[in-house]
Design a protein that fits this description.
The complex is a heterodimer of chains A (146) and B (140). Helices cover 21% and strands 35% of the residues of chain A. Chain A is built from 4 helices and 5 strands. With 146 residues, chain A is α+β, with helices and mostly antiparallel strands. Chain A is elongated, with a radius of gyration of 17 Å. Helix content of chain B is 21%, strand content 31%. A 5-stranded antiparallel beta sheet of chain B has the order 1-3-4-5-2, with helices on one face. In chain B, a hairpin with a 5-residue loop joins strand 4 and strand 5. Classes of the chains: A alpha+beta (146), B alpha+beta (140).
Amino acid sequence: MIDPKWIGHELSLSVLPIERTRVQFFAKAIGETNPIHLDPAAARAAGYADLVAPPTFIFAAELDSGVSERLLDDLGVPIAKLLHGEQGFTWHRPVCAGETVTVHSRIEDIYAKKNGALEFVVKQSRVLDAGGACVAEMRSVLVCRH
Amino acid sequence: MSASLSASRVNVGDELPPLLLPPVSRATLALFAGASGDHNPIHIDSDFARAAGMKDVFAQGMLGMAWLGRLLTDWAPQKDLRALNVRFQAITQLGDVIRCTGRVVEKLERDGATLARVEVQSANESGEVKIAGEALVVLH
C-alpha cells in the first residue's frame, strides 16, 4: 500500500535547460521532420527564438533530474510495477532551445482500485520559464500494478 | 509548417489528416528512452521486461503521446496547441503499426478565444485503441 501521507507532498524542483541537440534528438526519436525542431534558421524564420521543443518534450525535466525516480523510491513503487495511466498538458506558449524551465510538482491524490490490485498516484506540475511565468501545466496519473 | 487555422473553415466533424507510424521497433524505443530521459529498462531491456512479467519490451506511453502531438502540430501551429489530455488504455507492443487520428467534436469560446475541441486516439492495425483523449486548439 502506498502511504497516503504523501498526498500534498511537494517534489524537489527540476531545472531543465533546453538544448538544441536534445531537441533535435527528441524530434528524431519521434519521427518529427518539421524544420522548426531541427534547423535554427527555419525556427527563426517561423517567428521562434530558436528550435522549438515539441509539445511533450518538457516531460523530461523530472526524469533528467532524478526527481521521478526519487518519488518512486519514496512511495515504495518498484519501477517494474509502474504504468502510466493518464497524462495531460496545458500549454501557454511553446518553449525554445536556449531557455531553461523549472518544474514544480505536488502529489494531488493517492487511491486504490480493484481491492488494492491497482494503486494510483496523481501528480500536478507547473512549468515555469526563467522569468517565473507559467509556460505549461502537466498532470500525471501513475499506476502501480500488484 | 502548419498555418493558423481559420475558425470559419474548421467545422465539427472535420477529420485531421491521420498520422501513420512505422511498426514499433526496439530501435525506436531505445532512441526514445535516450531522448525523453525515460530510462526505465522495461522499455529497452527484454530480460528485465520478461522478469517483470511482460512478454517483451513495449513502447513508452509518452512515445505514443508524442506521436499524438505530431498529429496535432501537423494540423495546427504549435503555438495554437492549448491542451492535450490522454488515457493510456492498452500497451503498445513491438510490431504494432500505430495510426493516430483526430476529429473536431466542438467549437467553443473561452477567454475571448475560439477553440476547437478535438478527440484524438492512437490504435494499432487491428483497431485496438492504445491511447485516447482530447486536445484544445486555438482557431483564428
